[in-house]
Write a structure and sequence with these properties.
The protein has 188 residues and is α/β, with parallel strands linked by helices. It has a single domain, classed as Flavodoxin domain (Rossmann fold, 3-Layer(aba) Sandwich), CATH 3.40.50. It contains six helices and five strands. Strands 2-1-3-4-5 form a five-stranded parallel β-sheet, with helices on both faces. The chain is globular. The C terminus is likely disordered.
Length: 188
């Protein structure tokens, strides 16, 4: 079983990264092979909306997203991590998601159907509804693609790395990783 964890936070070693690392640790504890990639370290240009991929089956932009398409298709589980910025995802993770449009045009949606996903999102206030739009965006996109969201984790954490001291949140992240790798398709 392969887990691809995608971090969409420009803050290195911040709360998103800490939570993703714990999800991956949980997945690894049940035998999953895990890879963590921060899309902020990649050169991924925004979708141009040219729709060339509809005609050619590939994106015209030759950047790091081309390699990410292969990693996405090769994974069994996709974990997405993004802080909440203005009640939505970071620009980096939104760009990543927008560029998945070409993958769908390539017939990749058939290979996405049945995969599992988890969504992790720290946010800098105490209102539990803060991540609802971010989670809703992923829920709609993944439902459309036939990807099963096993769980979401929204955690109040504003200062860099503070979530590491939140025992309950860290337990939830670890358990999400375990749950992502259980079931008939993913049993380790």
């Amino acid at each position: 079983m392969k887990v691809l964890a995608v971090v969409g936070s420009p803050r290195k070693e911040g709360n998103t990264q800490v939570l993703i690392n714990e999800v991956v640790r949980g997945a690894g504890s049940v035998g999953a092979s895990c890879q963590v990639i921060n899309v902020c370290d990649l050169a991924i240009a925004p979708c141009r909306g040219c729709e060339s991929c509809r005609r050619t089956g590939t994106c015209v932009q030759k950047d790091d997203m081309l390699d990410m398409y292969l990693k996405i298709l090769d994974s069994d589980v996709l974990v997405i991590g993004s802080p909440v910025y203005w009640w939505g995802p970071s620009a980096q993770i939104k760009t990543f998601m927008d560029r998945m449009f070409a993958l769908v045009q390539q017939g990749g949606w058939k290979r996405l159907r049945g995969k599992k996903a988890g969504i992790v999102t720290p946010y800098g206030d105490t209102d539990p509804d803060t991540p609802e739009h971010l989670i809703g965006m992923f829920r709609q996109a993944f439902d459309h693609l036939g990807i099963d969201i096993v769980g979401t984790l929204g955690v109040t954490a504003g200062r860099k790395g503070e979530v590491a001291h939140n025992k309950e949140a860290m337990e939830e992240a670890f358990n999400l990783g375990v749950r992502l790798c259980k079931g008939p398709r993913c049993e380790a």
